[in-house]
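Standup notes
- DV: blocked on the single-chain target, sequence here:
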Amino acid sequence: MGNRNADFTEPIKQTIARRAGFRCAFLNCDLSTVGPGRAPVDTESDGVVAHIFSSAPDGPRGTGGLSIQDRQSPSNGILLCAKHSRVIDVDKGKNYSAPLLQSWKAMHESRIAREMKGLPLTSSAGWVSGLNFIESPLFKPSQKISFGKVTLLFGLNGTGKTAICEWLSSTSGLMRLMERWSFRRRSESIRFEVEFFNPDFAKADVSFKDTTYSCNLNGSSIESLRHAFRVIYLRNEKPGHEVPSADVEYLAYQWGIHPFQVPGILSKMGSEKYGFVRKAEVREVRVDEEDENNQEMEQRVFAQVGEHDSLFTFRALSGREHGQVLLIGAMILADELSRVTPTLLIVELPGTSFSDGLLAKYAERLASHEFQFQTILISPNEYEKVSWTGWSIARFRGKMPKIEIHQDDITGEPE
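- DV (later): unblocked, structure below
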């Protein structure tokens, strides 16, 4: 391997190792990489600060299109024991993709941070690592997508981004999302593999044709994979045929919870951990405030978003402010659920009208070790002012039934 032009400096290596607690970040290893030497004043180290995207253009996992500076940054390094530092680079690293290593690093740092603060840890280490598409009416055969802690799906409308999220959500028990696929031609079928860790690596085979859905794990048919991970899917649908218009019922529908649970979620929105919604609550108000004889009451949601100095009714908020209330509520749910089971939050950005700057602030929070859950963001747009270094990015190109998924070059340049 030649032209190693992006090696880490010693201070960067120390930063990466310290953030890992000097323990191997390979899934379920956690071996300490430092310890006492023979003499009372000596120490020994068995740790290797490995590159995620390679230091050399011809190295394992390639450069991902990143600059030298990005490949030298702490976000591109992972601490491993000597054994696992060799394992990840076998066969050009084909079995250990950059998104997978990013996932393990994020999960490991989250655990270290929570240990330091005395916070509870997820009951079992779990992660959704990827999807392999075997048959579908949309994708070119043998397409694959790998998921990191935060994964961005970019592509024009009609390139299969929403389909992936519906299919993945169905494996966690959200079966209603498969209904629209039952109306397609009978000759068409959907079949894909879900790869996940809980805590060991596993692969499930999922298929759907006509109105028959099946999920097989280790040769046995099971109802879904909800025992392995849970999905919260925020679609930001507009009130209409199936989507209720009343405030509390609308939020409950979007978050996939019962209306009785909405006030509790709103009460947690003032926390600095989630940010940008300073206060939210449910109030009982008269249906017709101008008619004093009409004493009929209804529940309405009030929220104070961003720089507003007072609360406004949910209906009076802008589309961008609606999106923030919906997103923070989903983050709260994912955060709480991830304390007891591996959790994946899926967010469709169309309709939220987030600016580059605002999305950058949410992106920084979602990538933080404070949150143990994974996130998938879906958008037809590329947000130029948001730094995606250290994230997994998938771009969708072409038209069905030959849509391709490109994930090797995170800069988006055609291969």
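- Follow-up: The chain has a mean pLDDT of 86.
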